[in-house]
Design goal:
Number of helices: 3
Radius of gyration: 31 Å
Number of strands: 0
Shape: rod-shaped
Helix content: over 70%
Largest sheet: none
Order of helices and strands: HHH
Length: 149
């Protein structure tokens, strides 16, 4: 039966079959790209943004708290400026921490959050002590920064 078909018809049939095949591969590729795009968006939202938030928290503790305390101890920063910088750092830390807690957390990350919360409480207490020392400096009480321990 195929032998009796004209050569032109055979070529048209071949072109049609190849076009359907190419169209199928293209559709399959588009579906795969959409799936990969969704996975990338999910990875970014679940991994990269939380990592940025944690990095910002670490940076705020380092530059907003520790360096300010050292500058205050070395008398290169006034108590008022130190207080302002510490308040800004605390706001940034709290905003990023709350945003991090709103992201998807794996069971392992949930355990790490519990441990980090305990460390954060200790750091918050140290910051509170530092704020008290700054208030003492502002009110004229002798310098206590760096004299303990």
């Amino acid at each position: 039966m195929v032998i009796n078909i004209r050569p032109a018809t055979k070529l048209y049939l071949l072109v049609f079959v190849m076009s359907v095949f190419i169209l199928g591969v293209g559709i399959f590729g588009v579906i795969g790209m959409r799936k990969m795009s969704r996975n990338t968006e999910t990875m970014y939202a679940d991994r990269m943004l939380p990592l940025q938030e944690l990095t910002q928290i670490r940076y705020s503790y380092t530059t907003g708290i520790r360096i300010v305390a050292e500058a205050l101890e070395n008398h290169t920063l006034t108590p008022v400026m130190a207080n302002t910088k510490i308040e800004l750092a605390q706001r940034i830390i709290e905003q990023n921490w709350q945003a991090y807690l709103q992201t998807y957390l794996t069971p392992e990350e949930t355990q790490l959050v519990k441990q980090t919360s305990l460390l954060k409480e200790q750091a918050d207490k140290a910051i509170s002590d530092l704020n008290q020392k700054i208030q003492d400096l502002e009110s004229g009480v002798p310098d206590k920064i760096g004299k303990e321990n």
